[in-house]
Please model this.
Amino acid sequence: MKILNTVTKIKISKKRVGRGIGTGKGKTSGRGVKGQKSRSGVAIKSFEGGQMPLYRRLPKRGFNPLNKRKIAKINLDQLQKFVDKKRINPENLINLEILKQSKIINKTYSKFKILANGNLTSKIDIEADFSSIAAKDKIEKLGGVLKIKNQK
Model:
């Protein structure tokens, strides 16, 4: 028994169609007889015989969610900057309407979330839709109140 140690390269020749009936792929080269599919240069992938194709009948929705919620995210250091610049009065309750009036949040946003990035030095009362746990802790540590809307 002989074992080959070298890797041998096997070359498989391409099947040559249309080279006589003895080859099994002769005469019509495996394409059948007549018709559109037997001709060269034909590509009819999604053709449905003139009927409106399925991919054009269905609505184009893609990856755009139909009920997209625009949520503005505000960090505590951003709120502190606005308090320092006197764009927000820390004595009043800060909510979405006040932030829209002072042009801190764009009017297209319907909800906003408080995030804990940065430090807060002044006591503020906020009414938000969402909040991170760390942001809530930082606000309450300074004596402020964070009220979450629609929470039971």
The first helix runs from residue 54 to 57. Residues 100 and 107 are 6 Å apart (CA to CA). The radius of gyration is 35 Å.
